Amino acid sequence: MGIHRLSSGAGAKVTIVLTRQKLLVITYINAYINMYPENFFRALADETRLRCVVLIQQQGELCVCELSYALNLAQPKISRHLATLKATKILQDRREGLWIFYNLHPELPSWLIKVLQETVAGHRSILLESKQ
Length: 132
Hints:
Pfam families: HTH_5. 44% of the residues lie in helices and 26% in strands. The chain is built from six helices and six strands; from the N terminus they run βββααβααββαα. The protein has a three-stranded antiparallel beta sheet, with no helix packed on it. Strands 4-6-5 form a three-stranded antiparallel beta sheet. A hairpin with a 4-residue loop joins strand 2 (12-18) and strand 3. The radius of gyration is 19 Å and the shape is globular.
């Protein structure tokens, strides 16, 4: 009897719960591992969100104030867009004292990373429009 957790390496986490009466197998699949292209492109259809993701991809990690300065936009507007990107699992955050830093989610599918890299490579103007 007991609980055993396994990971398949493909984003699926399996929990096996043994009880006296029955064996329960519960599988959780992370939604962002199997992110549908329409959800990804819908999240990045907004210019501000696209530019935030591109800047974060280029810098590795940025806080709201850095993005606000780089994009010359109000902090509440940036925060709202970052919340949307976090909800879709494109970004994750890390708190350090009063600061919240955002980076690309480490378990993003490889196709999504390639799309972002190709977007930056083919359209440098996305970065050039940011504050110099």
